[in-house]
């Protein structure tokens, strides 16, 4: 059976990476895809762990070679998921999680209509701004640019299967883990139905 593809999106600073990392620590069946980006590393970010950090020219060469599963300009930088980070794992039956923006999520849904998508919202715009600052990794100019973009990003929440409001962190982690579990169960039920097993069990023969 093919693996399940999960998409998680949110405005910058809403807590997406924190929630995903907490969930993946409890769930060994999901592989987190490491994206490619033309953005410069933040202090403490390591190549091939947080992102594959490459130049604009290298990113463009990958686009031209058709190597991306999805890609988009996000806050002025290129971000993208390589086909190689997704397709072989799904074919092996492994679940894969993409932490991407709404533009990438749209592209992925077109390729994989049964992907399970989650959008994370902050409890308020003030909380979002405070979290961006508290992280202490971006300049004031970057924070201002991302905060200004957040409203437009959040307007896309309705394109997703699930929405989590990340007010209390532990509740948000619990919701995300429950979505992972429920999506797998739902898929199993569909497979059983397709196999015609229930019809056979209930027949007179
Ligand atoms: N429920 C919460 N309450 C308070 N602070 C939180 C909560 N969830 C996350 N945070 C904090 O908010 C900050 C931003 O979180 P995080 O880096 O996970 O956001 P993100 O959505 O992944 O951002 P980006 O897309 O820019 O990488 C971090 O300092 C994190 O510890
Ligand atoms: N479309 C894609 N968006 C991506 C990818 N990897 C990350 N992102 C999104 O970028 C912003 C900002 O991230 P940051 O690390 O610079 O703070 C955030 O919304 C991410 O989800 C990707 O491969 N494709």
TrEMBL record:
It catalyses: GMP + ATP = GDP + ADP. GO terms for cellular component: cytosol. It holds the Pfam family Guanylate_kin. Its EC number is 2.7.4.8. CDD domains: GMPK (cd00071). It comes from Luteimonas cucumeris. ATP binds at residues 10-17. Its main location: cytoplasm. Belongs to the guanylate kinase family. Essential for recycling GMP and indirectly, cGMP. The lineage of its organism: Bacteria, Pseudomonadati, Pseudomonadota, Gammaproteobacteria, Lysobacterales. SUPFAM superfamilies: P-loop containing nucleoside triphosphate hydrolases. Residues 3-181 form the Guanylate kinase-like domain. GO terms for molecular function: ATP binding; GMP kinase activity. It is found in: Cytoplasm. This is Guanylate kinase. The keyword Ribosomal protein does not apply. Keywords: ATP-binding, Cytoplasm, Kinase, Nucleotide-binding, Transferase. The keyword Nucleus does not apply.
């Amino acid at each position: 059976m093919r693996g399940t593809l999960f998409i998680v999106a949110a405005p910058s600073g809403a807590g997406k990476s924190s929630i995903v990392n907490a969930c993946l620590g409890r769930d060994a069946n999901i592989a987190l895809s490491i994206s490619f980006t033309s953005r410069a590393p933040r202090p403490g970010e390591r190549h091939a762990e947080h992102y594959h950090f490459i130049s604009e020219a290298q990113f463009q060469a990958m686009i031209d070679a058709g190597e991306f599963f999805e890609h988009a300009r996000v806050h002025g930088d290129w971000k993208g998921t390589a086909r190689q980070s997704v397709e072989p794992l799904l074919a092996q039956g492994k679940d894969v999680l993409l932490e991407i923006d709404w533009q990438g999520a749209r592209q992925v849904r077109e390729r994989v209509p049964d992907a399970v998508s989650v959008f994370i919202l902050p409890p308020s715009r003030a909380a979002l701004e405070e979290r961006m600052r508290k992280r202490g990794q971006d300049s004031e100019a970057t924070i201002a640019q991302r905060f200004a973009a957040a409203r437009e990003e959040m307007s896309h929440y309705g394109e997703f299967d699930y929405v989590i409001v990340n007010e209390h962190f532990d509740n948000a982690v619990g919701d995300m883990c429950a979505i992972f579990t429920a999506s797998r169960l739902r898929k199993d039920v569909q497979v059983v139905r397709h196999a015609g097993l229930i019809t056979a069990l209930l027949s007179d023969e």
